[in-house]
Structure prediction request, 203 residues.
Amino acid sequence: MKKLIFTILIINLLIIKQGYAQDIFKQDKYGISIKKPSDWLEADNKQLLENLGKFELDDEKLEKFIKDNNGSILLTSFYKYNPQTHAGLIPTIQINVRLNPTRNFEEFKSSMIQSADSFKQYFSDFRFETEPRVIEVDGINSIYFVGNFTMKTQNGEPMKVRSRTYAIPKDGYFFQINFTDGTVKEDNSELFDELIETVDIDQ
Prediction:
């Protein structure tokens, strides 16, 4: 759990849907929903989620499904611009469900703090805009932090990037929601604040 998913570029198995995101994203098997950002493109892990929908799965099998997929499943992503045609920073929202081997919230908190600190190994200028702390998401004690760092485009141009991470534990797994935008341009703070308030977790 020490290595957080932090992918901005589109990856294999993601399918950009024609048209734009509307209404509510809901994943019934793991029990999470969130309002979709209007006029953003949506991408999903189509093949994997289709397989997930074929079975009746209890908590034990849901955990095994995550384990069989390298400990993490990308449920959906939203992109402000089309990654195939837009150069530069693309504000992005990603929702993952990941294994949670910890026994209680204090262990979970400690593990997530270690995970957040590990970003300093990958980005030399990484710093916390908001240090990891406990907040409530849909009434559930969760971990939240915001990090700033620099990435380079394919052309070698530096981009100032900001990522908000929410880690929301549930049973033997947890949801990780990443909101990525820019520190200079493409500030989407108001939208991200609105969307996190719409998260609904089945309890």
User: Anything to note?
Assistant: Confidence is low (pLDDT under 50) at residues 1-16. The chain has four helices and eleven strands.
